[in-house]
Amino acid sequence: MTASARPLTPPPTTANGPWAWLRANLFSSIGNTILTVIAGWIVYQVAHGVIGWAFVNATFEGEDGGACTRENAGACWPFVSAWFGQFMYGRYPDAERWRVNLTYALALAGLVPLMVPRIPGKLWSSLYVLGVFPILATILLAGGVFGLPDVPTDSWGGLLVTLVISSVGIAAAFPIGILLALGRRSEMPIVRWASVGFIEFVRGVPLITVLFMSSVMLPLFLPNGWTIDKLVRALIMVALFSAAYLAEVIRGGLQAIPRGQFEAADALGLSYPHKMGLIILPQALKLVIPGIVNTLIGLFKDTSLVLIIGIFDLLGMVQAALSAQRWLSPATPMTGYVFAGFVFWIFCFGMSRYSLMLERRLAPGGQRTIAKAAYD
User: Fold this and answer.
1) Distance between CA atoms of 118 and 125, rounded to whole angstroms?
2) Is the pLDDT of residue 373 over 60?
3) 162-177 pLDDT, tens per residue?
4) Whole-angstrom Cα distance, residue 320 to residue 338?
5) How far does Cα 11 stand from its chain's mean position?
6) Mean pLDDT of the chain
7) Model confidence pLDDT, tens digit, residues 200-216
8) Over the stretch 30-80, which tens digit does the pLDDT of each residue have?
9) Where are the alpha helices (DSSP H) in the chain?
10) Coil/strand/helix, residue 293
11) d(CA 188, CA 227)
């Protein structure tokens, strides 16, 4: 039998497979072996503590905090079960919570076709999400029309408020941020100075100060008898605050576009809106997807600051529940904050993974391999 006719044999296990990967990545040298052992010990200790607190030593049944006061008690899950409705809906009437659930369902009905690349009809999904859904959501949540009982925003709370503020803030901040970024690069001095002044002023003050001013100082400048809903004020301020940060992220993408792209668009005789909308902005936004998503994640987490003006979001409802005398126990605060943190983590992690998928899908040519490696 000639050498060319010999049957192929699989590579040795030391060169391929899980053992080869472990040897190449974790035990390739004495130093890496020591670091792997130390890291494994740390992971074991952390996992042992988390599992022991959340499951082994946790309390799963009880009517009050007294059930969670035993020695070495872990998580007090009856506290979360008893207050779960308030954490999700705030003080929204129990009989009307179906309206909140229907709003969530309508939101998913528009977002899923819009965010999944393989589903067609992106134009219609965008029109629904940006035009139809906000009207339906306002009618369902606020009521007062079509026989729906009126539910004031003072009764909204929990995850409902967190999602309302973050979604409205994201939807409003993105176009405003684009306009501010374009305005800062404008050749018209008045537009450029106004954009720069707004961006630098907003970025120079913390969000707590902006929210506090909107709640306490703004009513002093309104005519007698005029008032603006507290939640609406928070929505406006959060959107404007986030728009200033988004503007700088988008401006970085605009500056990364080669000058030849601008000159080519001018050579084609395109107007300024067509040049930006068809040539420049699509390229710039693709370049700054990580920065945009990072800003939006920060916006989602900053919604917890609305507690300073008396709006009880998810974290605010957890803090309010901790003051209940019935559930006082050493394990209750930790359980409540871990639950709130886990909910925030789910949404932030989802946004992060979706942005990585977009980077991989939109990366040009040779960069897709790098983007895929980051996604995996």
Assistant:
1) 13
2) no
3) 999 999 999 999 999 9
4) 15
5) 46
6) 89
7) 999 999 999 999 888 88
8) 999 999 999 999 999 999 999 999 999 999 999 998 889 888 889 999 999
9) 18-25, 30-51, 77-89, 97-115, 122-127, 133-142, 159-184, 189-203, 207-212, 230-256, 259-267, 272-274, 281-287, 289-302, 314-322, 332-362, 367-375
10) helix
11) 36
d(CA 55, CA 47): 11
Instruction: Please tell me the distance from the alpha carbon of residue 93 to that of residue 177, in angstroms, as a whole number.
Output: 36
What secondary structure letter does DSSP report for 287? H
Q: CA angle, corner 334, sides to 329 and 335, nearest 5?
A: 85
User: Structure tokens of 266?
Assistant: 């001018």
Three-state DSSP class for residue 132: helix
Number of Cβ atoms within 10 Å of the Cβ of 271 = 9
Structure tokens at 48: 């042992």
Domain ranges of the chain: 73-92+151-375, 93-150
Tokens 């506290």: give the residue.
79
Q: Which CATH class is domain 73-92+151-375?
A: mainly alpha
| Cβ 371 vs Cβ 353: under 8 Å | no
C-alpha pair distances (Å), 92 with each of 23, 85, 99, 104, 155: 57, 9, 10, 15, 5
The whole-number pLDDT of residue 370 equals 46
Count of C-beta atoms within a 10 Å radius of residue 264? 13
C-beta of residue 261 within 8 angstroms of C-beta of residue 312: no
pLDDT tens-digit series, residues 107-164: 999 999 999 888 888 999 999 999 999 999 999 999 999 999 999 999 999 999 999 9
Q: What are phi and psi of 223, to 5 degrees?
A: -60, 160
Q: How many CB atoms lie within 10 A of CB 228?
A: 12
Non-local (6+) Cβ contacts of 90 within 8 A are 155, 156, 157, 158, 160, 161, 312, 317
Which residues touch 177 (CB under 8 Å, ≥6 apart)? 242, 243, 244, 245, 246, 247, 249, 250
Amino acid at 186: S
Q: Residue holding tokens 């959501």?
A: 137
Phi and psi angles of residue 332, each rounded to the nearest 5 degrees, phi first = -65, -50
Six-digit token pair at 4?
């060319």
| 271 backbone dihedrals φ, ψ, rounded to 5° | -70, 170
Cα separation, 349 vs 372, whole angstroms? 17
- Which token pair is 207? 């969000």
